[in-house]
Amino acid sequence: MLFDGGNDSIKRGLSLSSLRHEIIAENIANVSTPGYARKDVNFKNMMQDKMTSSIGLNTTDKGHIGFSSGNINKQLFINYPQDTTIKGNGNNVDLDTEVVNMAKNNVYYNALTTLINKRFKITKDVISGRVS
Fold first, then answer.
1. Which pLDDT does position 83 carry in this prediction?
2. Which structural domain range is residue 33 located in?
């Protein structure tokens, strides 16, 4: 269970949720900024296993940084949806939409943290010889 790849998916989901939280907070902070374009995170691209496994980087020096989930270019997963009305000042951030998105994102994050905590508890119980 600990090494079945599920933890990697949960880790990627937590990273996605954290990034999405940052983006939503940025949208809310710029709700009155003229010309600001609302941003969101592309869940599908971020969660694809192929994304992290199919990209390989050749390094020519030991000081070069290789590819890992920790140094993913987050800009690859940010998109600019046009699903809200553009106001007269060119801004398309809807505060109500952002608050709802923030709440949904919090539920998603909390579900993932509960899941990973349960997985680690089961692993700990197995290691210590306890059976639930």
1. 84
2. 6-128
